[in-house]
Design brief:
Order of helices and strands: HEEHHHEHEHEHEHEEEEEHEHEHHEEHHH
Strand order of the largest sheet: 3-9-8-7-6-4-5
Helix content: 25-40%
Shape: globular
Number of helices: 15
Number of strands: 15
Mean pLDDT: 87
Strand content: 5-15%
Largest sheet: 7 strands, mixed
Length: 559
């Protein structure tokens, strides 16, 4: 969640009032009462504006407030056309109804909602089994508000186990470090910063498929390494990181040094993709089948197909969750054990997660994930067929390059009949692409960001951002294919991308810098004449849009 800066309401209201137009010497906006026949016939229709930055003394009619807020939210992008996010924007009507019926239930109230807690336990059991938990071990886990919280819990458990092992040997515990690739999502870096762990962020390269490089892992682990974060599905390109290869490196390191370094798998997206697709993880193991993998997290609100608000963390055995981190709570008439960063949180998403697991089953999830990958391959092949774009993601490339040559343009784009994801490189249904070098040489005036801006004008949200450090001279456009991307919608997306690119080609030079300088839709803050109004320097910077904002960075936090 981005930080929001406080707005001084008195300064802002004074500035806005000075800007109001007049009619026959009278201000158009006055605080007066009118009739209330419809939501639009109240005083907010033309005389008075809605309070924005301070609490009004008197309230307003419910239907009016509802309509005004709904109208302002029309300025948002359409969720289904938001191709920047992995977070799901569609649920079946029955699932939505279940969620609405249970919105008031608090997951923290175990004793009050025992049936809901039973569904929670079932979800944990189903995921543990799906990820290869062994019968001889006792898997344990919890729902979270998302993968960010789950990653923090997994990392904290690794840190405490490392500290306990070091203290038992009388060794120093002041310098823990954790290994991750530069492609890591911001939640992994947040864990290190928030819990005082050195983040050893290893550079990625084209040779490593812009993901964690196993050779660099070998060179950077030491006695103070609490664990390695390995990602099942890079947010940049969708590549799976080589969990088994890294596990073998850590096995070799333990044989030489006696130091046991665990792996936490960040499967925020891949946890609900890899188990169901025919491609799996491309052949190698990635889950609890590897003894070195101690914990796995995933996002139920991504490819688990639930609306935003649920993640999961599973430990392969309760012995890997230090007991002093688990709180025993005597609350509201019952006793519960808790290891979460939050207490009160919605329970409806857990109910809907269970609904999806039971309703869809293994075959249902497989069908959805295979469809997503099939559409991602179609988009990838269509983009490369134009000759203007090349894909950085690889899910459209054949797993065996020597498996024969396709004949005909149609087969090259659509693939052969009866093919599954097993015929292609394993990964998330993500298409990361950029303008070809030849295109850039021929049309040097065209900026790749212009494609993103013009597609936004057609309501598509496709981010353009740099690859991780050391490769950040390369910018990519990225499309996440979710369940709701139908073939018809995909056809329109391809057509719009082609039309936008042709528009840029046909113009000698297109200057879209003015679009970049626009205020966000719905931002009513004035920018000019702020100093003349006597505003403070800080307020002036906010009003003029010059103050630094966390959201102004490149889209490295898009997930």
């Amino acid at each position: 969640m981005s930080l929001a800066r406080h707005i001084n309401p008195e300064e802002l209201v004074e500035r806005l009032h000075d800007a109001h137009l007049t009619e026959n010497g009278l201000q158009l906006r006055q605080k007066m009462t009118t009739s209330h026949l419809t939501p639009y016939s109240t005083k907010y229709a033309s005389e008075t504006e809605v309070y924005k930055y301070q609490l009004p003394k008197e309230g307003a009619p419910a239907d009016t407030v509802y309509q005004l807020i709904r109208d302002e939210l029309d300025l948002d992008g359409k969720p289904n056309l938001n191709l920047a996010s992995f977070v799901g924007t569609y649920m079946e009507s029955n699932a939505t109804q279940l969620m609405v019926e249970n919105l008031s239930k608090n997951l923290a109230d175990n004793d009050e909602y025992p049936a809901m807690m039973t569904l929670h336990e079932r979800c944990v059991s189903i995921l543990a089994h799906l990820w290869g938990a062994k019968k001889t071990e006792h898997a344990v886990g919890s729902a979270t508000t998302g993968s960010s919280e789950a990653i923090h819990l997994g990392g904290l458990a690794m840190k405490r186990r490392w500290q306990e092992a070091r203290k038992a040997k009388g060794l120093d515990t002041s310098k823990p470090n954790i290994i991750m690739g530069a492609n890591a999502q911001v939640a992994l870096e947040k864990f290190a910063r928030y819990f005082d762990v050195e983040a050893r962020i290893l550079p990625v390269s084209k040779e490593s498929n812009y993901r964690l490089d196993p050779d660099l892992v070998r060179k950077n682990v030491d006695e103070n390494t609490i664990g390695v974060f390995v990602i099942m599905g890079s947010t940049y390109t969708g590549h799976y990181e080589p969990v088994e290869e890294i596990s073998k490196i850590l096995d070799e390191y333990q044989e030489k040094t006696g130091i046991d370094i665990p792996i936490h798998v960040d499967a925020a997206s891949g946890g609900f993709v890899a188990p169901f697709t025919h491609a799996q993880a491309g052949g190698p193991k990635w889950n609890f089948e590897l003894d070195r993998v101690k914990s796995i997290n995933t996002s139920g609100h991504k490819y688990g197909l639930v609306y935003a608000g649920v993640g999961w963390i599973i430990w392969r055995d309760e012995s890997y969750l230090p007991q002093h981190l688990v709180f025993e709570l005597h609350y509201l008439g019952g006793t519960e054990k808790s290891f979460t960063l939050n207490f009160s949180r919605p329970g409806a998403q857990i109910i809907v997660q269970y609904y999806n697991l039971i309703h869809l089953g293994f075959d249902g999830y497989r069908e959805i994930m295979e469809n997503c990958l099939r559409n991602a391959r179609l988009l990838s092949n269509s983009l490369e067929a134009t000759g203007w774009y090349t894909c950085v993601s690889d899910i459209h490339r054949r797993a065996n390059a020597a498996s024969g040559v396709l004949s005909g343009a149609k087969q090259a784009v659509l693939g052969e009949e009866g093919e599954t994801s097993a015929n292609y490189v394993a990964g998330l249904p993500v298409v990361s692409f950029r303008l070809t070098d030849e295109f850039r040489k021929k049309f040097p005036h065209i900026k790749q960001e212009s494609v993103s801006l013009l597609m936004r004008a057609r309501q598509w949200i496709i981010p353009n951002y740099a690859l991780p450090p050391h490769e950040d001279k390369i910018e990519i456009l990225r499309v996440v294919i979710r369940e709701s991307m139908s073939l018809d919608l995909l056809d329109r997306l391809i057509s719009d991308l082609v039309n936008v690119t042709e528009t840029l080609i046909d113009e000698d030079q297109v200057d879209l810098s003015i679009l970049q300088k626009q205020k966000p839709a719905g931002d009513s803050r004035p920018r000019k004449h702020a100093k003349k109004a006597g505003f403070s320097q800080e307020s002036t910077q906010v009003l003029e849009g010059k103050a630094a904002r966390l959201a102004d960075g490149i889209h490295r936090s898009v997930c």
